[in-house]
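My current task is to audit a protein record that another person submitted. I need someone to confirm that the C-alpha cell line plausibly describes how this chain folds. Take the sequence as given and treat only the C-alpha cells as open to question. This is what I was given:
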Amino acid sequence: MMTETLLHIQNLSRSFGEFQAVKPLDLDLYENEITLLTGPNGAGKSTLLLCLSGLLRPTKGQVFIQGYELYEQECQAKKRLAFVPDVPHFYPGLTALEHLRFISLAYGVEDGWENRARAILAEFGLWENRNLYPHNLSRGMRLKLGITLALSRPFKVLLMDEPTSALDSESAKVLVDQLTALRDAGCAILLASHDLSLVESLANRHLRMDLGRVEAV
C-alpha cells in the first residue's frame, strides 16, 4: 500500500542576516506517522516550525501540504495544517469557549461545535474555566487552550513546539492518547520537544537538530 506524503519540504533554509538558523533541508512527513524533533536550545527547531507553519517565510525553498505550496497557495495549504507554538497567542477579548466557537466558524465546522468544545475542554481540564479570558489562565492552561483549538478542527498535518513543556502529567497523558488516535486516523505529526519520553511513547521517527542541521537518529 502506498503511503501518502502529507508534508514535503524542498531545499528549505532560513537566515537572519549572515546567520543561517536552518540549513538547507529536504524532508517528507507521511500519513500515519509521528516524528519527534529533538536538539539543544538554539538548534533551530522553533525557526523550522515557524517556516513550516506559514508564520515565517523561508529564505529559500518550498513547503507543500498535500501538494499545496504553503506560501503560494496559502488558503488551501492552511486548511490542512494546524500549528501549536510553544507560547500560543489568543484574542484578549474572547473567552476560552468563544475561541473554540471562532475556530469552528473560521474552518466551516460550526455544526455540533458545542459538543466538541465541551468534550475537548473537559478532557484537558478546562471546562470549568471556559468563560475565563486568556489573561486569567495560567501558562499551562494557556498551552492546553492552544492545543484544544488545534485539535477541535480538521487537519492532515499537525506541528507542535514543546507541547508538553507546561502540562501536568494527566494532561500530558491525554495529549499522548489524542496524538496516537490522530496518527492512526491518517495524520502526519511533527513534535519539537526536549521530552525524550515521547520517543518511546509516540514517535515512529526520531530526528535531531543541531546548528541548523537535521539528521535522523
